[in-house]
From TrEMBL:
Signal peptide: none annotated. Residues 18-142 form the RDD domain. It comes from the Bacteria. The lineage of its organism: Bacteria, Pseudomonadati, Bacteroidota, Saprospiria, Saprospirales. It is a multi-pass membrane protein. This is Putative RDD family membrane protein YckC. Its main location: membrane. It is found in: Membrane. Keywords: Membrane, Transmembrane, Transmembrane helix.
Length: 244
C-alpha cells in the first residue's frame, strides 16, 4: 500500500498508510449524502416559514457554498475528519507533522471546486491515482495528505512522547538505544493493554516482553526495577531521553 513518512517537530519518523481513491470516494459520498439531506431539509424549512429568500437561487448556487462550508468546518473542528472520514477511519494530516491550520483546511475546501465539483471528480481521481502520496490538488496546495488512522494498533509515537515525568527522568539503561521506534511502540502498546485490561493474559505478555528486553539489552535481574511494568516504562523513558 502507498505510504507517507512524516517527520514530526520532535524529529520522530512515522510511516502512515495513505488513503486510496476508493476509500476517499466512499468518504466523500457519505459526506455528500449527509450534505444533500441537511441542505434540502433547510430549504424545506425556509419554504415552510415563508422566508423572504429566493429559493431558486439557493437551489442553484447555495449548495456549492454549503458543501465548501461543510468540509471546511467539519475538518477544522474535528482535527481533519469529516463524518465520512471518521466512519472510514481516515484523517487529514500535514506533511510536516504539525496539526493542519484553519488556512490549510480552507485551501482544501476551496480547491474542492476544481478537484471535484467543476470536474465531476475526474481531476481528483486522476491526481490521487497517479500521485505518489495519493494527494488531490487541494492536498498539494495545503501540503496535507489523507491517511488511515489505524497505526501500530492505535498506539502512535505521540503516546510515547507524552509519557509523564520525561523532564525529570534520569536514564539508567543506555543499551536501550539499540532499539528502534517500532520496538518501543510495541513496549508502549503492551503496557497500555496491560493497564487497560489487567487480565492474566496481558500480565503474561508483559512478563514475557520484560524478560525479552532484559536479554536483548543485557540487563541483569538485580539491576531492574521491582516490577515488569516499572522496568518497561523505565526503558521507554530512557529511550526518549537518550534518542530525542
Amino acid at each position: 500500500m502507498p505510504s507517507v513518512t512524516i517527520h514530526t517537530t520532535q524529529n520522530v519518523r512515522i510511516d502512515y498508510e495513505t488513503a486510496g481513491v476508493g476509500l476517499r470516494i466512499g468518504a466523500f459520498a457519505i459526506d455528500l449524502i449527509g450534505v444533500l439531506i441537511t441542505y434540502f431539509l433547510l430549504l424545506f424549512f425556509l419554504q415552510l416559514v415563508e422566508a423572504e429568500i429566493d429559493l431558486a437561487v439557493l437551489v442553484q448556487y447555495g449548495l456549492v457554498f454549503y458543501i465548501l462550508l461543510y468540509f471546511f468546518f467539519t475538518e477544522m473542528l474535528s482535527r481533519g475528519q469529516t463524518i465520512g472520514k471518521r466512519i472510514l477511519k481516515l484523517r487529514v494530516i500535514r506533511l510536516d507533522g504539525e496539526d493542519p491550520t484553519p488556512a490549510d483546511f480552507l485551501a482544501r475546501s476551496i480547491f474542492l471546486l476544481l478537484d471535484v465539483l467543476f470536474t465531476a471528480g475526474v481531476l481528483a481521481v486522476l491526481l490521487i491515482v497517479t500521485g505518489r502520496q495519493n494527494q488531490r490538488l487541494g492536498d498539494v496546495i495545503a501540503r496535507t495528505v489523507v491517511i488511515h488512522t489505524r497505526h501500530f494498533g492505535g498506539v502512535s509515537l505521540r503516546d510515547i512522547l507524552t509519557i509523564r515525568n520525561r523532564e525529570e527522568h534520569v536514564a539508567r539503561f543506555a543499551s536501550v538505544q539499540r532499539m528502534n521506534d517500532n520496538d518501543m511502540l510495541l513496549v508502549k502498546q503492551t503496557l497500555a493493554r496491560y493497564r487497560h485490561y489487567g487480565n492474566p493474559a496481558h500480565r503474561a505478555a508483559l512478563r514475557e516482553l520484560a524478560a525479552k528486553m532484559s536479554d536483548l539489552l543485557e540487563v541483569a535481574q538485580t539491576d531492574r526495577p521491582a516490577s515488569d511494568e516499572q522496568f518497561l516504562e523505565a526503558l521507554l523513558l530512557d529511550y526518549i531521553v537518550l534518542t530525542r
